[in-house]
Design brief:
Bound molecules: heme C
Keywords: Electron transport, Heme, Iron, Metal-binding, Periplasm, Signal, Transport
InterPro entries: Multihaem_cyt_sf, NapB
CATH superfamily of one domain: Flavocytochrome C3, Chain A
Family: Belongs to the NapB family.
Number of strands: 0
Distance between the termini: 100 Å
Radius of gyration: 33 Å
GO cellular component, one term: periplasmic space
CATH class of one domain: Mainly Alpha
Strand content: under 5%
Order of helices and strands: HHHH
Protein name: Periplasmic nitrate reductase, electron transfer subunit
Largest sheet: none
């Protein structure tokens, strides 16, 4: 029989293929069990609540607040606007200050500007409001106008109300004062 070695080779190959298949089947089913045994992370459940700790974990999309992409999270409650008349420190000198009072119903349109009722220089004393600074009267050529500059007319373009919202992403921003005091040799 000239084909005997061939038959042996075919037989061996078949046995080997069977072994590989068996090993694959065993390994595959094992890892399936492992995956099932891992408890689902708490926030992976549907309707997961937002938690500040989720901001510390590395995420692909921080806006999803840790909810996996294949699940729908429940949105956090709307931030509450603070009305405490407490000014917040500015992060840098030319930052538009945040508004320390609510602005609900304050109309700003072509005909009237409710903000300027209190924040115009002429009315500031009556309402005990800080008048808008001189930059608000300057046009783009740095010329001073008698009335508020059209560039500064729509206040909420730059000024926002203060809310109790938590930051969505962590920030390592340091203002200039903390940078200077961190320098060796500074008093
Ligand atoms: C009824 C009067 C009044 C109106 C109307 C008003 N404000 Fe004020 N605003 C104040 C007073 C008073 C303060 C000083 C802090 C306080 O008492 O809340 C102030 C403070 C501010 C500050 C903080 C300034 C700083 O130096 O930190 C900003 C910014 C501001 N207002 C923006 C606005 C904007 C924008 C509007 C319109 C959407 C507006 N205000 C409408 C009275 C008013
Ligand atoms: C284009 C952006 C921009 C717009 C629009 C704008 N502001 Fe400002 N505002 C600023 C910046 C920047 C500052 C801080 C630097 C400065 O005083 O120029 C500021 C400062 C202020 C301050 C504090 C002034 C001080 O002396 O501390 C008040 C009050 C204010 N703005 C009110 C208003 C009101 C009211 C309006 C709408 C009529 C308005 N702003 C529109 C950018 C803007």
């Amino acid at each position: 029989m000239r084909s005997k070695p061939l038959l042996v080779a075919v037989g061996l190959t078949a046995v080997l293929m069977g072994l590989v298949f068996f090993a694959g089947w065993l390994f595959g089913s094992r890892s399936g069990e492992d995956a099932a045994a891992v408890p689902a992370p708490p926030r992976a459940s549907a309707g997961a609540q937002w938690h500040p700790d989720s901001l510390l974990e590395p995420q692909i999309d921080a806006i999803r607040r840790g909810v996996p992409v294949d699940q729908e999270g429940s949105p956090p409650p709307l931030a509450r606007v603070e009305n405490a008349d407490l000014k917040r420190v500015r992060a840098y000198p030319m930052q538009p200050p945040t508004i320390p009072h609510t602005i609900d119903g304050y109309q700003v349109d072509k005909n009237s500007n409710r903000c300027m009722l209190c924040h115009a220089r002429a009315n500031a004393a009556t309402f005990q409001a800080p008048p808008v600074s001189v930059t608000h009267y300057m046009d783009r050529d740095d010329q001073f106008l008698a009335t508020i500059s059209p560039r500064r007319y729509f206040c909420s373009q730059c000024h926002v109300v203060q809310t109790d919202a938590q930051p969505l992403v962590a920030s390592g921003f340091q203002d200039i004062d903390s940078l200077i005091s961190a320098q060796p040799g500074s008093e």
